[in-house]
Amino acid sequence: MTQTKTKAPAKTATKATAPADESPAALIDARIAELGDWRGETLARLRALVKEADPEVVEEWKWRVPVWSHDGILCTGETYKSAVKMTFAKGASLEDPSGLFNSSLDGNTRRAIDFREGEKIDAKALKALIRAAVALNQGKG
């Protein structure tokens, strides 16, 4: 008597899980579309600024959030009810002359920026911070 193997049912994408073959960029696109409000617009703008600051950035999807890396994690883009948070993995080691960091200020490693509805993003200062994070990851900071 021979046994036949049956395939397990395919998993469908949900907020909690996503197919392994879906690219990080597609997952980030889906998250932005899913939000469909100012948070999605803000996350899309932050994503664009990260790419402008570092054209060689690698987009990843970890912990169900966008992650931008270059020789290590630079930052994540998390969304909450009242804020879009950009957490810099090594933010405590970065100079922040424009005073962008306004969250997670007591930690020894990370620092974050909370963007709230209607707030203007200082693109020049944010791109400088992203470039500084790249330099730090490359041992130049």
End-to-end span in angstroms?
Answer: 66 Å
CATH architecture: Alpha-Beta Complex
Classify the helix fraction into a percent range: 25-40%
The CATH topology assignment is Aspartate Aminotransferase, domain 1
The total of helices stands at 3
Give Rg in angstroms.
18 Å
- Write down the secondary-structure element order: HHEEEEEH
Choose one word for the global shape.
globular
- In order across it, which strands form the biggest sheet? 1-2-3-4-5
Which band does the percent of strand residues land in? 15-25%
Mean pLDDT: 89
The total count of strands amounts to 5
User: So what's the oligomer here?
Assistant: single chain
Uncertain ranges: 4-17
Major sheet: 5 strands, antiparallel
Q: What number of structural domains do the residues give?
A: 1
What would CATH call the class? Answer: Alpha Beta
Describe the structure.
The protein has 141 residues and is an alpha+beta fold. It has one domain: Aspartate Aminotransferase, domain 1. It has three helices and five strands; from the N terminus they run ααβββββα. It has helices at residues 24-35, 38-53, 123-137, and strands at residues 58-62, 65-69, 73-79, 84-88, 111-115. The longest helix has 16 residues, at 38-53. The N and C termini lie far apart (66 Å). Mean pLDDT is 89; it is low at 4-17.
